[in-house]
Structure formats: C-alpha cells, structure tokens
Amino acid sequence: MHRRLTIRSEPPGAAVMVDGVEVGYTPTSIDYTYYGTREITLTKEGYQTLTVPLKLSTPWYQCFPLDFVTDNFAMTKINDRREVNYALQRENIEPTENVENRANNLRSEAMRTDGMLP
C-alpha cells in the first residue's frame, strides 16, 4: 500500500508545513502512513498565511478486516493518491504614506491633549 498526498496552491511556490513540519514548496508531494486529520499551513510573502485542517479518510479497502487482505494478498500494488488545492489571498498592505499620516495625526492629537491632563 502506497499513500501519497500532493499539495498545490494558487499561486505556486508557497512554503508548506504539515503538522508543524516544513515539507517543501507548492506543488509538493509527501508520503504518509496513517489516515486522520493533518494541519496544513501555507505561507508566501505578499499573501495571507493559510492554516487548514485536512481530513484524510480511510478508504473502504483499508478498513478492518479488509485491510489484511488488501495489504497482504492483493495481486498488485495499491496506490492511494490524494490531491488538494488551495487559493491564497493577497495581503492588504497599506501604503506607507497612509501609515505615516495616521501616526503624525495621532502624535499631534497627543501633543494637544498632553497639556490638558491634571
């Protein structure tokens, strides 16, 4: 039995972490042994970090007692291939001028109210 998970993203080239372990950049494929829920984290500069749970459910031929037969007596190698695709959202980066203007406004307001406090 061979289990393989392929992770893709739009745009490609995002760093991929599976259960907190860095595994590469999209598109990437990893082998896994056990079914269950994995935590997938995708990061790319200029895009919001995406963290999602991914449930890898057990196929019918891997449920007890059929798994014994398929693992030991199958006449061919069984491949369980899974593929997931994620779309990353652009990060909303505010222009530097806007941040500086807001900071200057807050500073001038603080200077005006500074003398009024007891």
Structure description:
The longest helix is centred in the C-terminal third of the chain and has 19 residues, at 96-114. The chain is rod-shaped and about 80 Å long. The chain has a single domain (2-114), classed as Immunoglobulin-like. The mean pLDDT is 87. The protein is α+β, with helices and mostly antiparallel strands. It has helices spanning 66-73, 96-114, and strands at residues 2-10, 15-18, 21-25, 28-31, 36-43, 50-56, 79-87. The chain contains two helices and seven strands, in the order E-E-E-E-E-E-H-E-H.
User: End-to-end span in angstroms?
Assistant: 76 Å
Based on CA atoms alone, the radius of gyration comes out at 25 Å
User: What is the H/E order?
Assistant: EEEEEEHEH
CATH architecture field: Sandwich
Shape type: rod-shaped
Major sheet: order of its strands?
3-2-5-6
Classify the beta-strand content into a percent band: 35-45%
Number of helices: 2
Indicate the CATH class: Mainly Beta
- The helix-and-strand class reads alpha+beta
Can you summarize the main beta sheet? 4 strands, antiparallel
What's the total number of strands? Answer: 7
